Amino acid sequence: MNSKISSQELNPSAQNYISKMCNPFIFWWFMLIKLPSAVFWKLRVKTLTLEKCEITIPFSWRTQNPFRSIYFAALAGAGELSTGLLSQLALAGKGDFSMLVVDFKAEFSKKANQKITFTCNQGKELNELIQALQIGESTQLQMVSKGLNEDGDLVAQFFITWSYKRKS
């Protein structure tokens, strides 16, 4: 796993979050409690930095639909997780926030019949947005997660709009 931590950019809470999410054992327990389907589908954190998050989903009996490809809901779960972990990292150590998915759009372009890696590269944009948010204010950001197969072909992309609100 790749975590590329730069101590000048990350507060201790963010460093701790990356450390936990990139540890397979801790990630497994966290997902078992918070998002059990991620455990069943065997989602894995490949990379988590301030800039991007990569999540992998295998092609296996756990993720397969009757058409011998990865079930669309499993793909959506992996795509959403790539944006959700990036969001939680951006919020780590910066106070009390709420976050919620308020819109979701999907595009499927190729059969998902091998391991897929979902990547969201909007960490910098998200961090700037969160830094500017005042107490009581809310904002939204559409995040894009692209799923590529092992051959580098785009299989699916998800457009997930998150709402963030800074609490007092």
List descriptors.
disordered N terminus, 5 helices, 168 residues, alpha+beta, Thiol Ester Dehydrase, Chain A
Annotated CATH homologous superfamily: Hotdog Thioesterase
Helical region count? 5
Radius of gyration: 16 Å
Label the structural class: alpha+beta
CATH topology: Thiol Ester Dehydrase, Chain A
CATH class: Alpha Beta
Q: Could you tell me the number of beta strands?
A: 6
Q: What is the first-to-last residue Cα distance?
A: 35 Å
Largest sheet: 6 strands, antiparallel
Low-pLDDT regions: 1-8
Query: What number is the mean pLDDT?
Result: 93
What oligomeric assembly is this protein in?
Answer: single chain
Order of helices and strands: HHHEEHEEHEE
CATH architecture: Roll
DSSP helix fraction: 25-40%
* Number of structural domains: 1
Strand content: 25-35%
Task: Name the overall outline.
Answer: globular
Strand arrangement, largest sheet?
1-2-4-5-6-3
Give a verbal description of the structure:
The protein has 168 residues and is of the alpha+beta class. It has a single domain (12-166), classed as Thiol Ester Dehydrase, Chain A. 34% of the residues lie in helices and 31% in strands. It has helices spanning 12-21, 24-34, 36-41, 72-91, 123-132, and strands at 44-48, 53-57, 97-108, 116-120, 138-149, 154-166. The chain has a 6-stranded antiparallel β-sheet with strand order 1-2-4-5-6-3. Strand 1 (44-48) and strand 2 (53-57) form a beta hairpin. The chain is globular and about 50 Å long.
